Amino acid sequence: MNVSRKHLKIQGKVQGVGFRQKTQALAQKLGLRGWVKNTQAGDVEVIVEGENSKVSLFIEWCHEGPKHAVVSSVEILHSQQADGYQFSDFTINKTS
Fold first, then answer.
1. What's the mean pLDDT when you consider all of the chain?
2. pLDDT surpassing 70 at residue 94
3. 38 is known as an active-site residue
4. Residue 59: exposure state from Cβ atoms within 10 A (0-12, 13-18, ≥19)
5. Which of 2, 20, 52, 93 is flagged as catalytic?
6. What residues have CB less than 8 Å from 1, skipping those under 6 apart?
7. Domains of the chain, first to last
8. Is 72 left (phi over 0), alpha (psi -120 to 50) or beta?
9. What is the 3-state secondary structure (H, E, C) of the chain?
10. Which has the least CB within 10 A, 30, 43, 55, 94?
11. Residues 2, 5, 38, 52: which is the catalytic one?
12. What is the pLDDT at residue 81?
């Protein structure tokens, strides 16, 4: 299995719309690991790792987000193939 890890920054109307909770639910449904958090700048930041095809589906969803979100951009800050998993599950972290 090919494991990839992506670091994302999602911009737009992405705070106060359930983005973190829906992101976590989707990641867990897909069997992905990592974390999601709000930033003080008003963005959402994500580290996600897992099977390449599932990570791709996850990123596609991030371009839309939950019902009341308005996503203006999804930037991949860092991407790498991983030898294994760094995280044991997918969590919601505190705002940085």
1. 94
2. yes
3. yes
4. middle
5. 20
6. 51
7. 3-82 (3.30.70.100)
8. alpha
9. CCEEEEEEEEEEECCCCCHHHHHHHHHHHHCCEEEEEECCCCCEEEEEEEEHHHHHHHHHHHCCCCCCCEEEEEEEEEEEEECCCCCCCEEECCCC
10. 94
11. 38
12. 79
Q: Given the DSSP bridges, would you call strands 70-82 and 33-38 parallel, antiparallel or unpaired?
A: unpaired
Q: Stretch 10-19: mean pLDDT, rounded?
A: 96
Q: Distance between CA 7 and CA 35 in Å, rounded? A: 10
Task: Please compute the mean of the pLDDT values over residues 4-13 and round it to a whole number.
Answer: 97
Q: Is 33 a catalytic residue?
A: no
31-64 tens-digit pLDDT:
999 999 999 999 999 999 999 999 999 999 999 9
Phi first, then psi, for residue 60 (nearest 5°) are: -55, -45
Please name the residues in contact with 52: beta carbons below 8 A apart, sequence gap of 6 or more.
Answer: 2, 3, 4
